[in-house]
What does this fold into?
Amino acid sequence: MKIGVPTEIKPQENRVAMTPAGAERLVHAGHEVCVESGAGIGSGFDDASYTEVGAVIAPTAAATFEFADMIVKVKEPLESEWPMLREGMTLFTYLHLAASEPLTRALQDTGAYCFAYETLELDRRLPLLTPMSEVAGRMSVQAGAKFLEKPHGGSGILLGGVPGVKRGRVLVLGGGVVGTNAARMACGLGADVTIMDLDLDRLRYLDEVMPRNCRTVYSTPLAIREHLIHADLVIGAVLIHGAAAPKLVKRADLATMKPGTVIVDVAIDQGGCFETSKATTHADPVYTIDGVLHYCVANMPGAVPRTSTHALTSATLEWTLRLANLGAVEAVRTNRPLATAANVLAGEVTYEGVANAFGMDWVSAEEWAAKRS
It folds into this structure.
């Protein structure tokens, strides 16, 4: 199969979907790999590092898409890329379709086979989402600590405090991969950390493994409101597989929070878990509503591309190889995890969470494949 790796064009996105080591694996497996010129620069890979392992370099995105039967990306295709997708082409990337009806319908119109990293499920885990969730969770505390500083508009709180001065309070909504990594970082800084979740077994586990400055609380709307009043930094880390994030904090709740409190919404890719969230960029990351700073950057790991690219491609490479070896239709028919990654296939929505977000019709990927046998 011919595999194309275009340059990411989302603002301040420096990751690349394939390292030279990954390209070499694909070439050795009998596939052809074409990388857009400069695609790896932000992650520390020049064009020569790809040609040395057997990939070819294309001068433009258009040439990369034209070459490819399969496109491998990091982030969802932006509007300028939609016309370059075509019927029968395979797309493998983070899609987060439940947050964007225009993108969902655009992908339907292309007739392409669209697979999402974030919904690929293996043994009830999301192995392709996990590495970026780890990065984003850890970065959320770095970002929150920065914007708590007074020159950046925050309340002027040092999360770890100092002897004789109380430490900052961090509230983490969600005890999954993002929330756990955020809580670990906040604990490491010496903050007073509360992590909330609905899963009692998860809370028991976290209670055992987290440091002593982290407490666990069962999540209810009332409990969230009570903790918001005292929080200096609130991290939204809630995920529902492939679906829009629930709105756990309402606009009215902001009025109860301390001025200069910082919200970091890591769930913004799925629409955000704060009612007042809207996607921002690394160039303009925060805005203020009712005295509360909102940090809602939709591609947080893009700020640390050297770490993120290696972590991402280590997780995605084996699945990229399987998808390339099998082809889209056979992959859906014979590989259950890849079937769970199928979101839009030849114009049909094949993921329930995406369809429910917009009231659209859908068919399971397995049913879709059965019609083509």
